[in-house]
Amino acid sequence: MSAKKFIPYANESDVLSIGGLSIENRLDRISISGDIDLTQDKAGLALAQQLQKLLGDVVAQLEKAALPDQLPPPVTTTVANPFE
Q: What are the tens digits of pLDDT across the range 27-52?
């Protein structure tokens, strides 16, 4: 992980990379995209430990929050295509 502390749900700007994964911080969700190979070697162990720490931090934040049963769908708006 990077030297900067990634605090889940703290802001809308932090992005963390672990292997081929991109982890994006949001105020109401953590988005994870990409792929990762957890190989059976020291490099795979290091990646697995980073991923485990991240998920542990996410779970800890969720456990101490007052959570709704489910988030409502995001509000979206349609705008005119500026290229037409």
A: 999 999 999 999 999 999 999 999 99
